[in-house]
TrEMBL record:
SUPFAM superfamilies: FMN-binding split barrel. This is Pyridoxamine 5'-phosphate oxidase family protein. Pfam families: PNPOx_N. It comes from Methylophilus medardicus. Signal peptide: none annotated. Residues 35-133 form the Pyridoxamine 5'-phosphate oxidase N-terminal domain. InterPro entries: Pyridox_Oxase_N, Split_barrel_FMN-bd.
Length: 219
């Protein structure tokens, strides 16, 4: 009994003559525990991609970033990661609350290397968990279903230029997101953010867009 393949996968595999290869890869690569190698790789990263499913059954993928090690492996079946302040839409969180099944892609563009993970999420705002991450709004606990390493041959090599200045740290105040200084959002952001925006000065949409296009590091 395969953990990864259904009837449609099997039909396509048979059409392409890859069923035996797929079975061998699953046999070798598919794990139901997070071993030390996988733990070391996951905790060496400062980003990953999160896949969730919305209320209409549509999949979506989002980028999650933090400082190195922000995804923590608690034990061989469990990991946690923070949800920081975002754009207020709560798409990832809302999706996980409604449908706990998620996918996670951990990838290094410098090695290159990647691990795909499927699991069941639990969104929490328990104080003990929130205390693990500076300014986290939620902490997500993931119980592992399966993980497997993918062939890295198509991963392009990139190097990191710098880490985001918006990741919260205890030693200094987290900067206000530049888009929260746009005038047309002042009546819908929090009073605290609106006060910060007024103190910093409002910016025009065209200036903000120009900074994005120019690849400005502080956007």
């Amino acid at each position: 009994m395969s953990r990864l393949f259904g009837e449609t996968h099997r039909r396509v595999q048979d059409q392409q003559g890859t069923r035996k290869l797929a079975d061998r890869i699953e046999e070798i690569a598919c794990k139901t525990e997070i071993d030390e190698d996988a733990k070391g790789f996951i905790e060496s990263l400062d980003m990953f991609f999160l896949s969730t499913v919305d209320h209409q059954g549509r999949p979506t993928v989002s980028y999650k970033g933090g400082f190195t090690g922000f995804v923590r492996v608690v034990d061989d079946k469990t990991l946690i990661f923070p949800i920081y302040n975002g754009n207020g839409m709560q798409l990832s969180v809302g999706n996980m609350v409604e449908n706990a099944d998620i996918g996670m892609l951990f990838i290094s563009f410098e090695r290159p290397h990647r691990i795909r993970l499927q699991g069941v999420s639990e969104v929490s705002n328990e104080p003990a968990l929130l205390a693990l991450y500076q300014e986290a709004e939620f902490v997500v606990k993931v119980t592992l279903s399966e993980l497997w390493q993918n062939c890295p041959r198509y991963i392009h090599r990139y190097t990191r230029d710098s880490q985001s200045r918006y990741v919260p740290v205890a030693e200094c105040q987290t900067p206000l997101a530049e888009w929260k200084r746009l005038e047309f959002v002042q009546d819908v952001i929090s009073a605290e953010d609106a006060e910060k925006a007024q103190a910093a000065g409002f910016i025009q949409v065209e200036d903000w867009v120009a900074k994005i296009k120019a690849g400005a590091p502080d956007v």
